[in-house]
Amino acid sequence: MKKVLEEFKKFISRGNVLDLAVGVIIGSAFSGIVTSLVNNIFTPLIGVVFGGVNFSHLSLKVGDAYIMYGAFLQTVFDFLITAVCLFIVVKLVNKLNNDFQKMSKKDKKNEEVKVEAPKKSDDVLLLEEIRDLLKENNKKKGNK
Q: How close are the terminal C-alpha atoms of the chain, in Å?
């Protein structure tokens, strides 16, 4: 029994399991957002544009049975609306993420520019070279 508990502890503490659990929980919460977006915003707008089309009442009678193909069509239509809404939300999130990454890169470049030492002019470089040559010349004279 102790070995099984140790294996379970090892399994549950793996990063992938925790990432998956967080993904499922966030996905469930996000599902509520998408459902609300579809039901409360997009579906009424589409209803106005298409005149409140509802396919769910369409059916076909075969003998004593009713084939409710309208309910199926309505489900497919609802799925397509949800897919379009989710696509729009994902595109917006990706755009925001890309914008944040660009801002972050720009900030890093600005920091790098600030850290760089100022470049010396040609005159200063020439004077430093002359100074170094004079120092070297004085050392040679001192050794003779």
A: 89
Task: For the full predicted model, state whether its pTM sits above 0.90.
Answer: no
Whether 89 and 139 share a structural domain = yes
Q: In terms of domains, do 89 and 137 share one? A: yes
Sign of CA dihedral 32, 36, 42, 46: positive
Cβ neighbours of residue 57 under 8 Å, at least 6 residues apart?
A: 70
Structural domain range at position 72: 54-144
pLDDT tens digits for the chain (144 residues)?
Answer: 888 888 888 877 776 777 788 888 888 888 888 788 777 887 778 777 777 667 778 889 999 999 998 888 888 888 888 888 788 888 998 999 998 888 887 777 666 666 666 788 888 888 888 998 888 888 887 765
Is 118:124 a contact under the CB 8 Å cutoff? no
